[in-house]
Design a protein that fits this description.
Phosphatase PAP2 family protein; mainly alpha; 211 residues; transmembrane helix; 8 helices
Length: 211
């Protein structure tokens, strides 16, 4: 039953991703992108720019790699190899899928003055994909854990907030269109759900991911 739920959510997210992709292929800058760029332009000031530079680090692939490998070592040490493999699979999956679609849809970066240096295709956002994929699966591990965890509520809220912070920072800094980060979020949800729906990760004693 849980696997079916993951498949439904994952497929729905994939359809939403494909819908966004369809629109930007026919109109590179959508009304949503233009509106959001106008909004971002009105709230540009130095203290917020510094904060956005900080937030965007949480979606950087090197930063996420440290988190992933450190967490995998923790899982293996405490006999949670299943969680380690799931995390590693999602980490690898999001990178491959992101690079694949960047090459398929070679979208130019937003025509704005960027606060950070960026290269390559704009669609979908790699930082946002990474943040949603990694913090998303860690959020599920924490949320469904039955263990007594210190500051569990605070950790859950932090993991839930980080993807939003990273996504916002990427548009604020001029690195991505709004549709880049939306599509990236939907695609990462698909990667998470399809991974958890794989038969090899089904646990007879667990109906949902736990740590």
């Amino acid at each position: 039953m849980i696997s079916a739920t993951f498949l439904i959510i994952g497929s729905s997210s994939l359809i939403l991703f494909a819908t966004i992709g369809f629109f930007i292929l026919h109109d590179n800058i959508t009304w949503l992108d233009q509106w959001w760029m106008d909004v971002m332009e009105t709230i540009q000031f130095s203290p917020l720019q510094w904060l956005m530079r900080l937030f965007t680090i949480f979606g950087d692939i090197l930063f996420l790699s440290f988190i992933v490998f450190g967490t995998m070592i923790y899982f293996v040490k405490f006999n949670k190899k299943r969680n380690a493999i799931i995390l590693g699979t999602i980490y690898t999956g999001y990178i491959i899928v992101n690079q694949l679609f960047k090459r398929i849809i070679e979208r130019e970066r937003p025509p704005v003055e960027r606060i950070v240096e960026v290269t390559g295709s704009s669609f979908p956002s790699g930082h946002t994909m990474g943040a949603v994929a990694i913090y998303g699966i860690l959020l599920l591990f924490v949320f469904y854990s039955k263990k007594q965890m210190p500051y569990k509520k605070q950790l859950t809220m932090t993991l839930a907030a980080l993807p939003f912070a990273v996504a916002f920072s990427r548009t604020y800094l001029g690195a991505h269109f709004a549709t880049d980060v939306l599509a990236a979020a939907f695609l990462s949800i698909t990667v998470i759900c399809y991974t958890l729906a794989l038969p090899i990760f089904k646990n007879k004693n667990q109906s949902s991911p736990k740590s």
